[in-house]
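Annotated sample (chain length 461).
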Amino acid sequence: MNTTDTQTTEAYASHKKVYPREVHGLFASLRISGVLVLLGLYYFIPWISWDGHQSVLFDLPARKFHIFGLTFWPQDFFYLAILLIIAALSLFFFTALAGRLWCGYACPQTVWTEVFLWIEGKIEGGRSKQIKLDHSPWVKYKFVRKTGKHIAWIVFALWTGFTFVGFFTPISELGHSLLNVSLGPWETFWIVFYGVATYGNAGWMREQVCIYMCPYARFQSAMFDKNTLVISYDENRGEPRGSRRKGLDYKRAGLGDCVDCTMCVQACPTGIDIRDGLQYQCIGCAACVDICNEVMDKVGYSRGLIKYTTENALEGKPTRVLRPRMIVYAVLLCAMGLGLIYSMATRVPLGLDIIRDRNALYREADNGWIENIYTLKIINMDKTDHRLSLSAEGISGLRLQGAAAEFTAAAGQVMEKVVRLQADPEVLNKAGYDINFRIQAIDQPVLTLTEKGRFIAPVRY
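Output written by the structure step:
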C-alpha cells in the first residue's frame, strides 16, 4: 500500500510555479518585437475606419465580413478553407525548417503570457523578488502587490475580451454602450468569457497550456528531421559541466564550457533544462540561447554553447536546408497562395441561387408550352449598385417569363425573383435538360455569373 502511494505521488507531482528570469539579447528582442506588432494589430485595427466601415468587422447579423477593402459573404466560405490550408502548410513548412517558431514568437498563448509576465515583473519585481514574495507571510506589502497585479491582469484581460467582441460588433458602438452601461447580454457574456480565458491561460496556467493542453507539442516531432533547426545544447563542448574559479585552466581540469550556472533553466518559461536534450515542452523561444551567450561573454568563452542548430551539425555532418519535404511545402504554399490571389482578383461580386418549384415538376401553360417555375435569389455583393440583366439558355427558343429581364440591385442587396421558363413542346424530346441562368451587370459587363439549373419536360413514348 505504501509502495503504491509512493508511485502515485511520483507520477502525479504537484505543479510548481515557474519563475522565468528576464532575458536580454537578439532573440528576446525579436520576441518582444513580435509581441508589440501582433498585439498592436489586434488592439488597434478595429479602431481604424476603411471605406466607411470598420477595417476588420465580421458582421454576423448582416452576414458580411469586411476585411479592409474587401467584403466577403457566406458564399465566399471557400476562401476561409483555403486560408486555413495555407496556414496549416505554413506551420508544417516553418516547423520543418526551424522547429517551433510559431510557439516561441507568434502563438497567442506565448504573446499574452509575455505581457502578463511583464506586468508581474513591473509590480512584484524580478525573479528573486517574486520567489521571496511568494514565500513570505501575508503582510500589507504582499497583499498590496498581489492585489495590484491581479487588478492589472483583470483589466488587461477584459480589454482583450472587449477588443475581441469589437471584431464582431462595431467597436465604436460597443465602446459607447459600455460607457452608457447598456451592453447587451451576449456582448457582456463574450467579453467576460474571453477576459476570463485570457486571465486564466496567460496569468495562471501559462506553461501548463503548452505542456498539457496544446496538441501541437505532441505531434511536432513528426515534422522534425536531422536537418531541422532546433535549440540544442552542445554536449560535446559543454560536458563535463561544473563550476570553476576564475583563471582556472578548465580544459586541463577536465571540464567543459558549461559552468553549470543553471541560468538556462531559470530563463526557460516552461521550466525545462535544455541540457537534457530536445523535449516536447520546449517552445523554441530561445531565451536559453540569449542568457547562455551572456554567461559565455562574462566568463570569456565563445558563444553558441546553446544555439539554433541541427542534429546533423552536432554530429559533424552537413546540414541540408533544401530537402524534398521543404520543396514540396514551398511549392504547395506558392501554388495555393497564387491561386487564392488569382481567385480573389477575378472574383465576381454577384451571387445566384436557383430553387425549383417543388409543387410541380412542370405544367402546361395557356399557350400550350411546357413551363417550369423557379425562385432565384440574387445577391449584389459589391459595394456599388448595379443594373443587371437576367437571361436563360439551354433549350432552343426558351422564354423567360414572370420577371423583368433588367433590374437594379442595390449594393449588398439580396432579392428574390420568381421566374417561369417556357419551352416549345415540339423541341422537347427527353425528360430533362440542363439549362443556364445568366446575370450580367449592364454597367460593368465583365461582371457576369452563370449558374446551372434543370428543366423538366413530359416524357414522350
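Annotation: The CA atoms of residues 389 and 406 lie 4 Å apart.
Annotation: The chain has a mean pLDDT of 91.
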